[in-house]
Fold Pyruvate, phosphate dikinase.
Amino acid sequence: PQYVYRFGGGVSDGGKGDKNLLGGKGANLAEMASIGLPVPPGFTISTAMCARYYEEGEAFPDSLRAEVADGIAHIEGVTGKAFGDPANPLLVSVRSGARVSMPGMMDTVLNLGLNDQTVEGLATVSDDPRFAWDSYRRFIQMYADVVLGLDHDRFEEALEIAKEDRGYFLDTDLTAEDLKALVAEYKGLVEELWDKPFPQDVHDQLWGAVGAVFGSWQSERAKVYRRLNDIPGDWGTAVNVQAMVFGNMGDTSATGVAFTRDPSTGENGYYGEFLINAQGEDVVAGIRTPQYLTRAAREAAGAKPLSMEEAMPEVYAELAGVFDTLERHYRDMQDIEFTVERAKLWMLQTRSGKRTAKAALKIAVDMASEGLITEEQAVARVDPSALDQLLHPTLDPAAARDVLTKGLPASPGAASGKVVFDADTAEKMAAAGEDVILVRVETSPEDIHGMHAAKGILTARGGMTSHAAVVARGMGRPCVSGAGSLSIKGKDGVMRVGDREVQAGEVLTIDGSTGEVMLGAVSTVQPELAGDFGTLMGWADKVRRLKVRTNAETPADCRTAREFGAEGIGLCRTEHMFFDAGRITSVRQMILASDEAGRRAALDKLLPEQRADFAEIFAVMAGLPVTIRLLDPPLHEFLPHEDAEFEEVAKATGLEVEALKRRAGELHEFNPMLGHRGCRLGVTYPEIYEMQARAIFEAAVEVAESSGAAPVPEVMIPLVATAKELELMKAVVDKAAEAVFAEKGRRIEYLVGTMIELPRAALRAGEIAEVGEFFSFGTNDLTQTTLGVSRDDAARFLGVYVEKGIYARDPFVSIDIEGVGELVELAAERGRATRPDIKLGICGEHGGDPASIAFCEKVGLDYVSASPYRVPIARLAAAQAAL
Ligand code: PEP
Ligand code: MG
């Protein structure tokens, strides 16, 4: 098999369709070369080699040697330089590149090909001995770290001492002679720490670096990143070997990163940062603060150092042309790395840029308007889960705020939490249920678990493309970066701004949209749902087939859900209404009553309260379908615990506290989830369901009369296993309906149906559909009962199950398609066989999960029901499922 693919100099062995084989970087380098953009020549060793490398016990097959030799010859041919040639040496970079970008997770080696001879050649050819020795110095330092795994700090220390000894402040103060001495010192360090001299053979250097890049695929941080981002471990990385171009050859050289549109807001304008006389990683590392790309951006920020547009107008114009070519070619916003070597532009990378949800929306909508993509493509472009970022509150502009300082608006959204200075503590505190803000001088890949656990991230150093900014945007965490006035002493648990001090544990608020950092918690407001959001949702609604309802029981939630586009209520859990302060005593009286008469006395008090609840919901939902589930949970959930609570019930009923306590004891269940709950309550105490049904119909008639929009109640019986149970309960509901209609002299339409949340119900769906007019899949309980996994105890072990690949994802979050899904499919089929027009929906948490929604589309359900904030996510996911 072929493992090496060349690009540059008029050759492209691959293209953008080859991401799986060449990784994103390699595929796009080949693509850029093939459309005539200036790409330094190079070659990609495919991801297939990565798998082979591990199969062979971290070694290379012999056949690869010849292929790599051909690849090097290709680069030599195009550049006219020779690898290891002391007169005109070819230097290469060796970089990783997986199918999807894993920013900063894997290794890179630059300036490879330098040794004691070639450094002299480079000095002559470049006419710049300082540059040559600085490159050699950087190369040894990077190689020692990445390939040899030697202690990075020792090299940093040697560099610091070299400056101190000479009274210098900046790296750039070091002369060629100084750097030559430092190189000698570095080589000594390598020998001391590695017991062998620094490799002088350039081919040894190359194979070492290639092995290190493949090796970095299995590094701890790469594994953590893959786990957090659902990236399979067997994809592997490719390795890109490419001729070096130098952004550090003086003032006509530069290096930078850019986006073809603003990745934070989606604004259509070039956006990026660059540094004059610097090498690649300097920009991302956040060590020097980069300069703006455009004059407009520099002026907006009130910054002094010239923008690239001003400092290098000709190269900038060429770069802008490349941006336009790339956007038209890829039809998406691109994230680009470039280098200018002595006024000549080189493209080092392009890929679809990571963006915030806000930017994703704006870019998709704008590009459709510009005619670059279709409306349907725009709908397909936005990740439904990312909408979450937009739907949550932002800082209330009217709220008082005590602004400590301001940094860069690196990732939008607002967050408050306790200050923590390290990732491990952030993770621990978050696991204990605390909101935390992770505060770091700058972040590195070692911090990602803490960034993930934190509500927000604040750094003192680094630009908009620093690690913190890029990773936070990807995760959807608010982030303020580069807050330069912060002095962070993490070890002492304190940070300072001017003369103000903030201790670890104090509450801080950050606004990732403005860069503001505030002391204390600041109140928030609901997001704006018009504009691009509304436009995209409109397009989504045109293509989706599934209806989207919501799970809600308070009028406020119902209103929120309607604003988000809910087309009805799929689940109103009536037990949530039983906990209200005013009525819990009546509920307890009902439960603790020893006979029907006692229960009825309590139910009479609850009836008007329930009726008022339902009337309010019907009014908000204005004629849309409302599914109301009759009481479901085990009764003991409502029992009093405190003596005072028992006394209150005693007062209301005239019964003795002791007798009530005895009765409470009798209600104890060993396994309440499988105990006296669901329709079993209605079967044993029909008067409860009778009262609830009466409340529903009285409210429905009342609202029909007062508003003119007749409600469409769908009365739902929970936890049914047999058709007989449903038959009995339907009789109770129908009887109550008839009684109310007779009393009021007005009928309204309604349905009686059931939840399918037990395997037996799914299997017997054919006969259950003879009674039930609709099914709603209660996939929370159906998952619990099908897997035999308690939904309340699963957290203790499911994490390990997912880690070990037993379940691909948490089956309570994303439906277990093979098991639970098969029951859903079968029940839908059997239900329809009996009653072709049966209404089918889902109201478990899965109703708001995009992958589960795709499954619901496939099975042909009529609607999904999700919690209010997930309604837009469900609308978009339903549209994508229909495309
Ligand atoms: C379900 O079981 O999926 C359901 C929606 O009901 P609950 O979560 O209230 O048990
Ligand atoms: Mg349930």
Q: What stands out?
A: The chain has a mean pLDDT of 92. The pocket of phosphoenolpyruvate (ligand 1) is lined by residues 571, 573, 632, 757, 778-781, 843-844 (CB under 6 Å).
